[in-house]
């Protein structure tokens, strides 16, 4: 096909024109790109560079070492144990099946664990570590490390984990730590950034919970450079955290161990305190549990077993259990009456085995009656009718006021959660809470520690200390924080006439040392260690039936309070054995053993017991599952 | 003037053709490819593998291919234009129908040594076919509606197939590349004006219809447009790529953070750091100076092509050169606009720099044809 020269020349010119136009447009566009580049990279450079730094630099928190907890002699109660665990991240888990199978052969990873890992990985973020196995033994850990090439994606990590070497002994007092939950977070006013670490352990009960802020310490930080997946490329700057403060408690681990062992088998609790300082030396509660189970994640089966046990192992009975004090309350009524001037120590009341008030008959525990009886006699024999008379003479307001002065119905400032304040009822209380007027029968019941009156073993120990010293003894649990001694709050006199106190103490002395005292069989025969105590048997039912013929949960509570030595008091003890039967038979022998251990600082010698009992006592003491020092205390040097 | 009308004796023959190769173009292409190697090396954290070494091999192969194709007379390529177009179309249909079922919706065919994307091939063969068409067509008929409809159909047929893959970026390149060849061939301004006006009206309608009962796009499609217009509105979702890309680019400054010092691209904040977003690595590590240098190299390639085209009295040679230059221009213009946040993320690589064998080899083949047109351009005496 031939074309005319004019045509071709014309088209060539047109092509050139259009090419120039195209080229021009393209250059203009490129110029625009260049300007845009300049604008972003030069004019906005600062801004973008800032954004870039934020992008890649992240601050990670380093959990601090939690403060340790010691007993009064410096033995570790709560410590941090180095633990080994292996984790895997989703982004590295491409060969999960192979890895899990390999771990099964290497360290016996169970099928349950494998399923759990698979499930957790499904829901995890790409770089969030999922724990395959926690608390590996050193052998298993090194096996995993040695076989690393066959386990792609598995990273071994070393961490700190709470450990309670004395196991059950301090379960109720120290409590335990557990992973922070959203419920925990919702209840905090100020949320420590550490709480954002997944499964960060915080105190869940006991001292661990109440002293959380002191024990936790401050987070360290590490500035890391990371990529978009959160994978750390390198560490830029590390600032170690500040470890939590160490706590020293007033507790004595040996005495506590003895208390737990002595109470074992019963649903019981006991408190022993220093009558001068208010230092709590031991506060037992049985049955107990191993707090380490909770730290490691308790199984549903174990947890349900704890929940369903009718002996209720979980609550700390020494401060959370509120019981009718029974006859251990009679010192309060006696002092109230003495102080009100409605009776003198020597004045006698005639006990006929019962008394009629307001058309109702109130019985003494001894149906035959005690005859004419004075103050010390009424304590020694625990005569109820005497106190019915005192209640009518002194009135409930005086009794309640005396009870409060002696520390009943009061919540103490102790770092223990869920403490019961007990109940010291009066007319106002009944109107407010029961919508009924106080009747005289209420006073009579209250006078012997029944009816509405409720006390905790801790309160009974405080009451006993105050009776022993006549001073306002306040219990103390924290001896020092980070080496700084905490103040002893026990203070001034109760302003109760010393002669009146002396009469009451005399009565208590006779309870244990008069051969007609209710706790005479639980006496201490060593001079200078003699007990002054009071038995209590508080009814949990109305019908008068022999304890042996009713189910456990309907039997009476057995109580005993005492201080010793009676003439120069050092320690006060309170023992409550739930549904234990009589105070003199069930509680008093236990209290005597605890007191003797406290006084001797060791398992008491048989010489302190009455000759006739030594055989039985020896059998009993020998059978106690006591921990010998070195058992657990030295266990932490294996890592 | 059609090629055969020229005196062939003025055209170099045999090995002497080597002397007439557009060496400036070769140097510029090599320079751009070297920038690519450096960036791929840096992106791999200072290693030739996995990207830089294969890319260098491919460039070597491509360079040889380009020179070989350049040695082949341009009329051969003109005669092959139709065959190439049909072949590309068939391959597109193959991946469309067999790729779906057999290979899980892939866009490429495995040739063993490389993966061929038919859509890449189509970019070149379409330009060649259109250049051939306008070489053949009587100049007077160029703006006749019937003779305009034919190339429009030739453009839209493969575009529809590519759009269905779906590959919006490549289909846009096909439309614009074809349109530029048509424009250069002398199709009346009015057509382009009318298309632009219609497009503008459509866009206006699309946006004004939003929220009304008769809105033209689905809600999610509007949201995508929103994200493009303001990436910060969804920084962790759809706007993520654009935002991260801008941060990397902007943080480069005048001279950049230095070779291998880029934090953003190094740390995997950037998606596709070795392919579509490789420019951000360059801009971050070598700053504005690095970016503008690459842009100037690209401009040089386009300018040398256009000069070659304007000096080429062979209509096919000139048009195919303009078309290939335009396609090349569209590649980097769209890619750079994308990483700078001026265009939506459509998946267009940075030519000669992004990692990828198919795109690079096809481009080298295209520049081979440009070389062929250059070497075999008719020379008039005096």
TrEMBL record, chain A:
- Which chain regions cross the lipid bilayer? 20-39
- Output a single Gene Ontology CC term carried by this record: plasma membrane
Task: Report keywords, A-Z.
Answer: Carboxypeptidase, Cell inner membrane, Cell membrane, Cell shape, Cell wall biogenesis/degradation, Hydrolase, Membrane, Peptidoglycan synthesis, Protease, Transmembrane, Transmembrane helix
Q: Where in the cell is it found?
A: Cell membrane; Membrane
Protein's membrane topology: Single-pass membrane protein
Task: Fetch the InterPro entries from UniProt.
Answer: Beta-lactam/transpept (IPR050515), Beta-lactam/transpept-like (IPR012338), PBP_dimer (IPR005311), PBP_dimer_sf (IPR036138), PCN-bd_Tpept (IPR001460), Penicillin-binding_protein_2 (IPR017790)
Q: Which Pfam families match?
A: PBP_dimer, Transpeptidase
Ranges of residues in domain Penicillin-binding protein dimerisation: 63-236
The keyword Lyase is assigned to this record:
no
A biological process from GO: cell wall organization
Q: What is its main location?
A: membrane
What are the residue boundaries of the Penicillin-binding protein transpeptidase domain, all occurrences included?
Answer: 269-595
Which NCBIfam families does the UniProt entry name for this protein?
Answer: pbp2_mrdA
Name-wise, this protein is Stage V sporulation protein D
Q: What organism is this sequence from?
A: Pacificibacter marinus
- Gene name for this UniProt entry: spoVD
From TrEMBL, chain B:
For this entry, the protein name equals Peptidoglycan glycosyltransferase MrdB
- Provide the topology term for how it sits in the membrane: Multi-pass membrane protein
Q: Which PROSITE patterns does this chain map to? A: FTSW_RODA_SPOVE (PS00428)
Which organism's genome codes for this protein? Pacificibacter marinus
Span-the-membrane segments of this chain are 20-39, 59-77, 83-101, 145-163, 172-192, 286-309, 316-340, 352-370
What EC number(s) does its UniProt record assign? 2.4.99.28
An example of a GO molecular function for this protein is: peptidoglycan glycosyltransferase activity
Main localization (coarse) = membrane
Domain of life from the UniProt record: Bacteria
The question of whether Cell wall biogenesis/degradation is a record keyword is answered with: yes
Query: Which compartment or compartments is the protein found in?
Result: Cell inner membrane; Membrane
- Tell me what reaction this enzyme catalyses: [GlcNAc-(1->4)-Mur2Ac(oyl-L-Ala-gamma-D-Glu-L-Lys-D-Ala-D-Ala)](n)-di-trans,octa-cis-undecaprenyl diphosphate + beta-D-GlcNAc-(1->4)-Mur2Ac(oyl-L-Ala-gamma-D-Glu-L-Lys-D-Ala-D-Ala)-di-trans,octa-cis-undecaprenyl diphosphate = [GlcNAc-(1->4)-Mur2Ac(oyl-L-Ala-gamma-D-Glu-L-Lys-D-Ala-D-Ala)](n+1)-di-trans,octa-cis-undecaprenyl diphosphate + di-trans,octa-cis-undecaprenyl diphosphate + H(+)
Name the keywords, alphabetized.
Cell inner membrane, Cell membrane, Cell shape, Cell wall biogenesis/degradation, Glycosyltransferase, Membrane, Peptidoglycan synthesis, Transferase, Transmembrane, Transmembrane helix
């Amino acid at each position: 096909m031939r074309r005319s020269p004019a045509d071709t020349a014309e088209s060539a010119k047109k092509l050139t024109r259009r090419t120039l136009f195209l080229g021009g447009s393209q250059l203009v566009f490129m110029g625009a790109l260049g300007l845009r580049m300049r604008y972003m990279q030069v004019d906005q450079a600062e801004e973008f560079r800032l954004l870039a730094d934020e992008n890649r630099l992240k601050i990670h928190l380093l959990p601090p070492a939690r403060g340790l907890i010691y007993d009064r002699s410096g033995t570790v109660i709560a410590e941090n144990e180095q633990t080994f665990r292996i984790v895997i991240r989703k982004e590295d888990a491409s060969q999960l099946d192979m890895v899990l199978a390999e771990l099964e052969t290497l360290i016996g990873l169970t099928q349950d664990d494998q399923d759990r890992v698979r499930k957790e990985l499904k829901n995890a973020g790409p770089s969030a570590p999922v724990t395959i196995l926690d608390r590996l033994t050193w052998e298993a850990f090194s096996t995993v490390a040695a076989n690393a090439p066959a386990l792609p994606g598995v990273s071994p990590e070393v961490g700190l984990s709470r450990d309670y070497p004395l196991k059950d002994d301090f379960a109720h007092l120290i409590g335990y730590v557990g992973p922070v939950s959203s419920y925990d977070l919702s209840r905090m006013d100020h949320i420590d950034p550490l709480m954002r670490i997944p499964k960060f352990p915080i105190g869940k009960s006991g001292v661990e919970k109440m002293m959380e802020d002191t024990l936790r310490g401050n987070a360290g930080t590490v500035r890391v450079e990371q990529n978009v997946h959160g994978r750390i490329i390198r560490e830029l700057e590390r600032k170690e955290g500040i470890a939590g403060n160490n706590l020293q408690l007033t507790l004595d681990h040996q005495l506590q161990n003895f208390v737990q062992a002595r109470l074992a088998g019963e649903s019981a609790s006991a408190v022993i305190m220093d009558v001068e300082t208010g230092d709590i030396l031991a506060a037992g509660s049985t049955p107990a549990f191993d707090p380490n189970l909770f730290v490691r994640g308790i199984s549903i089966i174990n947890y349900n077993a704890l929940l369903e046990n009718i002996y209720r192992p979980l609550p700390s009975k020494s401060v959370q259990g509120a019981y009718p004090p029974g006859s251990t309350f009679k010192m309060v009524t006696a002092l109230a009456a003495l102080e009100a001037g409605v009776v003198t120590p020597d004045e006698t009341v005639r006990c006929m085995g019962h008394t009629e008030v307001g058309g109702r008959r109130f019985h003494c525990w001894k149906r035959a009656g005690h005859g004419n009886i004075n103050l010390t006699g009424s304590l020694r024999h625990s005569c109820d009718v005497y106190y019915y008379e005192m209640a009518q003479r002194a009135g409930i307001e005086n009794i309640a006021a005396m009870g409060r002065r002696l520390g009943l119905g009061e919540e103490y400032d102790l770092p223990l959660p869920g403490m019961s304040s007990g109940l010291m009822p009066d007319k106002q209380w009944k109107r407010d809470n029961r919508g009924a007027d106080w009747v005289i029968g209420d006073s009579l019941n209250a006078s012997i520690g029944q009816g509405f009156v409720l006390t905790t073993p801790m309160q009974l120990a405080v009451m006993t200390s105050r009776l022993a010293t006549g001073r306002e003894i306040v219990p103390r649990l924290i001896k020092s924080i980070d080496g700084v001694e905490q103040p002893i709050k026990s203070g001034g006199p109760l302003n109760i006439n010393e002669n009146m106190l002396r009469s009451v103490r005399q009565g208590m002395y006779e309870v244990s040392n008069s051969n007609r005292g209710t706790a005479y069989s639980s006496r201490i025969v060593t001079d200078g260690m003699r007990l002054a105590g009071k038995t209590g048997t508080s009814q949990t039912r109305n019908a008068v039936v022999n304890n042996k013929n009713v189910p456990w949960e309907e039997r009476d509570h057995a109580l005993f309070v005492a201080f010793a030595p009676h003439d120069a008091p050092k320690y006060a003890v309170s023992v409550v054995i739930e549904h234990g039967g009589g105070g003199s038979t069930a509680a008093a022998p236990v209290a005597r053993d605890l007191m003797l251990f406290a006084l001797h600082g060791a398992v008491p010698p048989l010489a302190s017991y009455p000759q006739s009992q030594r055989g039985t006592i020896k059998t009993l003491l020998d059978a106690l599952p006591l921990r010998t020092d070195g058992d657990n205390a030295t266990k932490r040097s294996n890592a | 003037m059609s090629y055969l009308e020229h005196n062939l004796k003025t055209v170099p023959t045999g090995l002497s053709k080597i002397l007439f190769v557009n060496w400036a173009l070769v140097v510029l292409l090599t320079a751009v490819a070297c920038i690519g190697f450096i960036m791929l090396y840096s992106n791999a954290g200072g290693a030739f593998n996995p990207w830089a070494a294969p890319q260098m091999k491919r460039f070597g192969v491509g360079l040889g291919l380009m020179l070989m194709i350049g040695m082949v007379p341009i009329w051969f390529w003109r005669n092959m234009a139709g065959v190439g177009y049909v072949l590309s179309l068939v391959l597109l249909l193959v991946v469309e129908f067999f790729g779906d079922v057999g290979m899980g919706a892939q866009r490429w065919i495995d040739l063993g040594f490389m993966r061929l994307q038919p859509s890449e091939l189509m970019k070149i063969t379409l330009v060649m076919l259109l250049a051939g068409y306008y070489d053949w067509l009587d100049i007077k008929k160029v703006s006749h509606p019937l003779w305009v409809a034919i190339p429009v159909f030739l453009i839209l047929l493969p575009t529809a197939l590519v759009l269905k893959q779906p590959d919006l970026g490549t289909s846009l390149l096909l439309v614009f590349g074809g349109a530029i060849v048509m424009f250069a061939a002398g199709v009346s301004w009015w057509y382009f004006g009318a298309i632009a006006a219609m497009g503008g009206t459509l866009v206006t309608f699309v946006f004004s219809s939003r929220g009304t009962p008769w809105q033209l796009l689905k809600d999610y499609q509007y949201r995508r447009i929103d994200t493009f217009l303001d990436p910060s509105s969804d920084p962790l979702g759809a706007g993520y790529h654009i935002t991260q890309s801008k941060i990397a680019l902007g943080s480069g400054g005048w001279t950049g953070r230095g070779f291998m010092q880029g934090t953003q691209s190094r740390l995997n904040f950037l998606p596709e750091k070795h392919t579509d977003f490789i420019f951000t690595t360059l801009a971050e590590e070598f700053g504005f100076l690095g970016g503008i240098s690459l842009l100037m190299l690209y401009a040089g390639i386009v300018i040398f092509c256009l000069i070659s085209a304007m000096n080429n009295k062979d209509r096919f040679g000139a048009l195919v050169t303009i078309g290939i230059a335009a396609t090349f221009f569209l590649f980097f213009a769209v890619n750079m606009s994308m990483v700078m946040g001026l265009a939506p993320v459509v998946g267009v690589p940075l030519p000669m720099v992004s990692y990828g064998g198919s795109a690079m080899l096809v481009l080298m083949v295209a520049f081979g044809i440009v070389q062929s047109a250059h070497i075999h351009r008719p020379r008039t005496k005096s």
